[in-house]
Amino acid sequence: MKHKDGLDIAALLLLLLVAVAAMVVPVALTQPALLAVPAVLVLIALCVVLYQRRRLRAFLARQLCSTDFENSRIQYSLANLPIPTVLVNDGRILWYNQYFRQDVLDDYDAVTRPVNRVLPELDLAVCSRPHGQDLKVGERRFTAYAGSAKGSRGASLVYLINDTLYKETLDEYNESRPACLIIVIDSYDELFDDMKDSEQAKELEAINSLLEEYIGRSTGFLRKVTNSRYIAVVEERDVRWMLAERFDILDKVRALHPGGLTTLSIGVGHGGKTLQECHQMARESIDIALGRGGDQAAVKTVDGFEFYGGISHGVEKRSHVRSRIIANALCDLIKRSDSVIIMGHRMSDLDAVGSAIGVLRICKMCDVPAVIAINSEATLAGPLLKTFLDAGEGHDFIAPDQTLDVITPNTLLIVVDTYQKRLLESQQIYEKCKRVVVIDHHRMAVGHIDNPTLIYHEPYASSASELVCELLQFMPKENNITPLEAQALLAGIMLDTRSFALHVGVRTFEAAAWLRSRGAQTADTKLLFNTSKEEYEARAHIVEAAYIYKGCAIALSDELEAGMNVVLPMAANDLLTINGVDASFVAVAKNDGVNISARSMGALNVQVILEPLGGGGHLMMAGAQLQNCTLQDAERRIREQIDLYRAAQKENTAR
Ligand SMILES: Nc1ncnc2c1ncn2[C@@H]1O[C@@H]2COP(=O)(O)O[C@H]3[C@@H](O)[C@H](n4cnc5c(N)ncnc54)O[C@@H]3COP(=O)(O)O[C@H]2[C@H]1O
Ligand SMILES: [Mn+2]
C-alpha cells in the first residue's frame, strides 16, 4: 500500500538525518571543507520531505473526499450535494467535496491546510449569520454559509453558493443608476453682455470644449439647454470619479482667465429612485450652489447636501430692476396682511436689528401694524436698542412669546439676516405663521426655510441692512425714514463690512450715501460699537493668549461673564489685524458647549472650514455653536479642519 511506502521513506529519512548529525562534528573538526556534504544531504532530505507531504495530502484527500470511502457519515450526506462544501476544524481544512475541489481549489488538494490560506476573507462568525458572507475567489464570487457539523465538537461545515452572475449583475445595476448634472455658467449675462460676438464665441467654445471633454470621460451625454445652462445625464460610476476628483472641472474653467472671471456652478442629483427624481435633486442642488455664491458644486444625496469648491469671491450680480420688483411685491404682501411680525436671528446683532427696523418702516409706510420680535436679554445690539428705547420707540420691540397670541392666519412673518430655521429668534413664531418672507445675504446652507412666499436673497450684498435700504428706496410711497432709523441701518452695514473694509460693492456705498442723505450720523453710529472697560479687557486677554497655526490665529477662552457675548466676535476681528494672519478662530466655552467666531481676509473661506462643525456664515465671517464639547475638543476639531483646508489648497495650486 502506498501509505506504507510513505512510512518506509520516513524511516529512511530519519536514519539519514541521524547519520548526518553524527558526521557533522568529526568532519567539522578534521576537514571543514567537507561540511558541504552534510549540507547537500540535508537539502535532499528537505526536498524529499516536501514532496512526501504533497503526496500524503493527495492521498488523504483521495481517501477522505472521494466517494469510495464508504463508511463516512459526512461522505454519505454531503459528497453528492451539488454545491461546494468544506469541513473546517480548528482553522484547518478536514474534508471537502468534489465541487469545492473543482470550483474553489482549482483541482488542488488542501486537506489539513489552514483555511485562511485558501479563503483569506472567510470569517466563520459572519458566515453563521442568516445572510452569510460574500467571498471572492479569483474571478468567482460566492456567498458562504456556515453551520456546526453534527457529532464533531468545534467543527464547522461551510457551504459556498456560487452567485457570480447575480452579484456582477447587482454591481452593474448599482454602477449604472442614473444621475443628473445641471451646469450653469455663473454671471453669464453680466459677462457676455459687454463682449463682442467674436469674443463671446471664443469664450463659449473654451468652456464648451472643457465640458465636453469632462462629460466625454463618462458614459453619459451633455446637452446645452439655454445660453448659460447645460444638463448632463451620467451614471453612478461617473459621479464616483467626479466626487473623488472633487469636480476639478471647476478649477479648469476658473483657470481660463487669470482673475477667475468665468466660473461654473454644478448641481448634482444622484442616488434617486428614478431619473426624474435625480433631475429634481439636481435642480435643488444648483439652486443652493448658486445661492451660496456660485463657483462650486452642490451634491444632493438621500441624506443631505455636500459642497465642493467655492473658493473664489462671488461676482456682484444684482440689478436695480430686481430690487424694484421685490419692493413692489413686498408692499403688496404687507398690504394684504392683518399684521406683520419681523424677526432676525437669535443673539441678534446690529445688522439683524438694523434691517428689522428698516422693514418696520416699510410696514409703517404701508399702514399695516407691525412689531419686531426680539429677545432683548440675548442680543449683541444692546446699545442700539437702548437708543430706540430712549427715543420713546420701545413699543415696537416685543418679546417673542408675547406675539404668539396675536398671530392670525393672515399674519405675515418677515425674517431678516438669516435663512436658517434653527437660527431663528423664535421657532414658535415661524411655525405659527403661514406666510413667510425672507430677506438675507448669507450664503445658503442646508436647513433653510422652506417655501417662503417671497425671498430676497442676495449673497453678494454686504448685509441685510443694505438690502433693506434698496427696498426702502424703491417704495412706491413718499419716504419718511427718520435719522435714527437711517443710523440703525448704517450700523448694520458697518458691522458686516467691518466699517467698509470687506465685502463692499458699489451698491453698499450707494446705500450708505442714501442713508447719510437721510440724516444718519457716522460719529453716532460708531458709538454703537463701543464697549465697556471690562469687555475691552476680556477681549485683550483673549488676543494675548492666541497662537498662530498654519497662518490662522487660534484663541481659546473659558466661559465669559454673562452679557459679555460681544467680546467673542470682537476678539476674532482684532486677531485679523495682526500681520501674517489669514484667518482667526476664537473659541469660548459656553454652558456645556463652545461658541466659535471665525474671520478671514479672504485668503481662506471660513464658512467652508466651520460647516463640518455644524456652523456657517460667509467667506470672511462665520460662526458655530458646538454642544457637549470641551474647549480642547473644539480646538482639535478646528485644527483638523484647517489641516484639511490647507491640504486642499495645496493640491489646488499644485494642479
Ligand atoms: N451655526 C451656524 N450656522 C450658520 N451660520 C452661522 C452659525 N453660527 C454663526 N453663523 C453665521 O456666522 C456669522 C458670524 O457669526 P459671529 O457670531 O462670529 O459674528 C456675528 C456677530 O457676533 C458679530 N457682532 C455682533 N455685534 C458686534 C459688534 N458690536 N462688534 C463686532 N462684531 C459684532 O458680527 C457677526 C455678524 O454676522 P452675521 O450675522 O452676518 O453672520 C453670522 C452668523 O449668521
Ligand atoms: Mn447678523
Automatic annotation (TrEMBL):
Its main location: membrane. Mn(2+) 1 binds at H345, D349, D417. Mn(2+) 2 binds at D351, D417, H441, D496. Its cofactor is Mn(2+). Belongs to the GdpP/PdeA phosphodiesterase family. Has phosphodiesterase (PDE) activity against cyclic-di-AMP (c-di-AMP). This is Cyclic-di-AMP phosphodiesterase. It comes from Gemmiger formicilis.
